[in-house]
Amino acid sequence: MYADRFGTLKGISRVQTGAMTTCPECGAGLTLHDSIEVGEIVDCSTCGTELEVVEENPPVLDLAPELDEDWGE
Amino acid sequence: MKVGLLYSRIRTDEKLLLEELRSRGHEVKKIDVRDQQFGLSGSSVDAAELDIVVDRCVATSRSMYVTEFFDSYGVPIVNPPDVASTCSDKVKTSLALEEAGIPTPDTRVAFTREAALDAIKDFGYPVVLKPVVGSWGRLMARIEDDHAAEAILEHKETLGHYEHKIFYIQEFVDKPGRDLRVLSLDGDPVAGMIRSADHWITNAHRGAETRVLDINEEIEDLVRRASDAVGGGLLGVDLMETDDGYTIHEINHTVEYKALADVVDVDIVGEVVDWLEVKATASDNGAAKMAL
Ligand SMILES: Nc1ncnc2c1ncn2[C@@H]1O[C@H](COP(=O)(O)OP(=O)(O)O)[C@@H](O)[C@H]1O
Ligand SMILES: [Mg+2]
Ligand SMILES: [Zn+2]
């Protein structure tokens, strides 16, 4: 592992592969894919709730905000 | 370069962008706008350390203001606030297109139910009613008769906030079951797709079928002019086909490109980052010159 001149860490994956956590809504165990990113939304495979990744390592999930009327592209 | 990415939700689009930036060795500062405060001469984000800021806010209202702030702090922002202001508002977009002589669906705006109903009857049915700020095909109405028109106007006036009392009424374009999306960088078309659906609303976000669009000269010319008309930048230009050529109904300033990237061979995100690199360098040079 080294940091290049931009300070980017090379040689490590940003998050452990298949990190485990639990759904804050239903408590079921959840395996996350290996490149989760803070701000990303994942669905709980047990209860279907949309969850927001609020911390990466170790992963922490929170309920995702509801869609707002001004959302879009 | 050091890139600030403004967001409140990381979609696949942002992930692709982050991946490309990081793989090229650029430093990325993810800025969750929900955690920030923006002051008149500075914010909780150290703007001075950023070479360029990319606005990927999914909330249009936030996008409009964060772009104003970073522009005011003197950091190059994609897209700039004037572009966000025009593109986020369908009235301003329609006017900008019309002023530039670009074909766009005939549109009228009215402020009361009565005036709106008159405009609707003038257009005849079907007619389209859209929110002035909105996306992903939401809250749009295709109105087929007086009864529906009266009901929708009453609902909007009674249940909606003030923005829904700005009635944006548009001719219905009898398009061939599809519309077109072109992604452009300061007017240069990068790639395009055809979005087809049985429904009259053909947004990819609503599950329209997508395939590659062959960008002909006419489309290229219109996209360039449309981009110029709203101030350029990284844009998603939406076109419909009519019997006498194309008409542009919308330009998106925080354009999603995942669906497009899935259907075209062009390395969309690579092109976007190439373009960002040039923008950031240009601004560096500008700053260096000013310092002399
Ligand atoms: N005037 C119109 N006539 C027919 N179809 C339209 C018209 N305006 C929009 N549409 C359809 O609805 C979709 C969404 O409209 P658009 O103006 O782009 O709003 P949004 O910002 O929600 O994407 C378009 O992609 C097109 O398929
Ligand atoms: Mg659109
Ligand atoms: Zn759950």
Notes on the protein architecture:
The complex is a heterodimer of chains A (73) and B (292). In chain A, 0% of the residues lie in helices and 32% in strands. Chain A has 73 residues and is an all-beta fold. The termini of chain A are far apart. Chain A has strands spanning 2-3, 9-10, 20-22, 29-31, 41-43, 50-55, 60-63. Chain A has a domain at 16-63: Single Sheet (Rubrerythrin, domain 2). Mean pLDDT of chain A is 82; it is low at 1-16. Chain A contains no helices and 7 strands. In chain A, 19% of the residues are buried. Chain B has 292 residues and is of the alpha+beta class. Chain B has 3 domains: 2-79 and 275-282, Rossmann fold; 86-102 and 174-253, ATP-grasp fold, B domain (D-amino Acid Aminotransferase, Chain A, domain 1); 107-171, Dna Ligase, domain 1, CATH 3.30.1490.20. Chain B is built from 9 helices and 13 strands. In chain B, the strands form 3 sheets. Chain B has a 5-stranded antiparallel β-sheet with strand order 11-10-9-12-13. Chain B has a 4-stranded parallel β-sheet with strand order 2-1-3-4, sandwiched between helices. In chain B, helix 2 links the parallel strand 3 and strand 4. In chain B, helix 1 packs across helix 9 (268-291) and helix 2 (60-72) runs antiparallel to helix 3 (81-87). In chain B, 43% of the residues are buried. The interface between A and B is medium-sized, with 21 and 30 residues. The complex binds adenosine-5'-diphosphate (ADP), magnesium ion (MG) and zinc ion. Zinc ion binds at residues 23, 25-26, 28, 44, 46-47, 49 of chain A.
